[in-house]
């Protein structure tokens, strides 16, 4: 897709094969096992029976936007941004992230789109706008892993990033908010982080020590 240069063709224009793909540090077990929660994130995203669907999508979208914006570091790749009129603009990664966060902030603070007053209805276009927000937020998350995971590890924030990513992916999958073709570039990581860990094996109770009878008790005879 136009938003990133992560996907690379198998051959260069001159017919030569590109260099071997760099090892993905974020897939190494020592990093994927680090989280800040140890329960199934599916429990956090399932729609509660008493909550309106749009209310649930709105609150989770805002949480995702806030969390991801905190991880928007200094980025350096080239992206393409399409404005509201469809105009295509070539931009650096910091500019792209700024465009994403500015758009998300504009949408979630618009009372006509994300109503906060009692009785105010969500617009008919609400779900499509939430999908747009989630699509852009995924782009930022993917870039953080591809271009800035080393910095994340250096700051000892990989557990927070993994948890944020897993929560986000589980949420968008639950409500079909991002096309699978869009997220497939990170399927290897999603498979690892979004698969619930098996419950720990029960620890067997220690058996009571058995003591051998003393010689005196063995030789003792009770007279009658």
Give a short overview.
The chain has 224 residues and is mostly helical.
What does this molecule look like?
The chain has 224 residues and is mainly alpha-helical. The chain has helices at residues 29-32, 42-45, 53-70, 93-108, 126-154, 158-174, 180-183, 187-193, 215-219, and strands spanning 78-82, 88-92. Strands 1-2 form a two-stranded antiparallel ribbon. β1 (78-82) and β2 (88-92) form a beta hairpin. The radius of gyration is 26 Å and the shape is flat.
Question: Class in CATH?
Answer: Mainly Alpha
How are the strands of the largest sheet arranged?
Answer: 1-2
Task: Report the β-strand fraction as a percent range.
Answer: under 5%
Structural class category: mainly alpha
| Counted beta strands | 2
What's the main sheet like? 2 strands, antiparallel
Distance between the termini: 98 Å
Spans with pLDDT under 50 lasting ≥5 residues?
Answer: 1-14
Second CATH tier, the architecture? Up-down Bundle
The overall average pLDDT, rounded, is: 76
Please tell me the total number of domains: 1
The residue fraction in helices comes out at 40-55%
- The CATH superfamily appears as MOB kinase activator
| Form type | flat
Helical run tally: 9
Order of helices and strands: HHHEEHHHHHH
CATH topology group = Butyryl-CoA Dehydrogenase, subunit A, domain 3
Rg over CA atoms: 26 Å
Protein name: MOB kinase activator 2a
Biased composition (Pro residues): 197-207
Biased composition (Low complexity): 208-217
Binding site for Zn(2+): 143, 148
